[in-house]
Specification:
The chain is of the alpha/beta class and 159 residues long. It has one domain: Dihydrofolate Reductase, subunit A, CATH 3.40.430. It is 19% helix and 32% strand. The chain has helices spanning 25-35, 44-50, 78-83, 97-103, and strands at 2-9, 13-15, 40-43, 59-62, 73-75, 91-93, 109-115, 123-124, 133-141, 151-158. The strands form two sheets. Strands 5-4-3-6-1-7-10-9 form an eight-stranded mixed beta sheet. A two-stranded antiparallel ribbon has the order 2-8. The longest helix has 11 residues, at 25-35. It starts with a strand and ends with a strand. The model has no long low-confidence stretch (mean pLDDT 98). Bound molecules: NADP nicotinamide-adenine-dinucleotide phosphate. The site of NADP nicotinamide-adenine-dinucleotide phosphate has 28 residues, from β1, β2, β3, α2 and α4.
Length: 159
């Protein structure tokens, strides 16, 4: 099963200058809890922004140019990345925008953290047709322990 996991600002922005724009501890914990023990698949730029493989997860990086990254499996396409794992295993597409655009065509599930604030940034989550997806869970917070704006953890399954 292919799952997308992403945090999106109210205006669609997900990052700027190859970095995240907010720090929400609750979302970091949600990401760690949800993806731990599962493969994570990301674009080369997102890998660069992390700077190291995520622990306790098989890290797969998609690149046309880079052939090797220590501690990661590097592949040349999303299809190749998905083919590495059995179908019953939940694998997580962790960005960024270029890889989300490809993954929206094939994903079965979407973990979407909505951040109810707008940010200026150079990278946005691609347009997606919400009618193709069914909201199956929602967990809303008025603010975080150290984050001033509301956010919500939503899960969607492809209809
Ligand atoms: N808010 C969130 O949840 C979230 C999550 C993840 C990332 N982000 C943000 O998103 C931004 C990065 O996103 P991005 O869209 O710029 O980059 P990206 O999707 O992380 O990586 C793009 C790279 O992936 C490779 N690639 C893309 N399409 C490919 C294809 N069809 N076949 C083979 N390789 C392909 C290329 O690598 P090569 O150039 O090496 O060939 C390309 O430069 C950062 O600001 C990051 O902080 C936000």
């Amino acid at each position: 099963m292919v799952s997308i996991i992403v945090a999106v600002a109210q205006n669609g922005v997900i990052g700027d200058k190859n970095a995240l724009l907010w720090h929400i501890s609750e979302d970091m914990r949600f990401f760690r809890r949800t993806t731990s023990g599962h493969p994570v698949i990301m674009g080369r730029k997102t890998y660069d922004s992390l700077g190291r493989p995520l622990p306790n997860r098989t890290n797969v990086v998609i690149s046309r140019t880079t052939k090797e990254i220590e501690g990661c499996t590097v592949v040349g396409s999303l299809e190749e990345a998905i083919a590495l794992f059995p179908k019953e295993e939940e694998i997580f597409i962790t960005g960024g925008a270029q890889i989300y655009a490809l993954a929206l065509e094939v994903a079965d599930r979407l973990y979407l953290t909505r951040v109810f604030h707008s940010y200026e940034g150079d990278t946005s989550f691609p347009e997606w047709n919400q009618e193709e997806w069914k909201l199956t869970s929602e967990d809303a917070y008025p603010c975080g322990e150290k984050f001033p704006y509301p956010f919500s953890f939503e899960t969607y399954e492809r209809r």
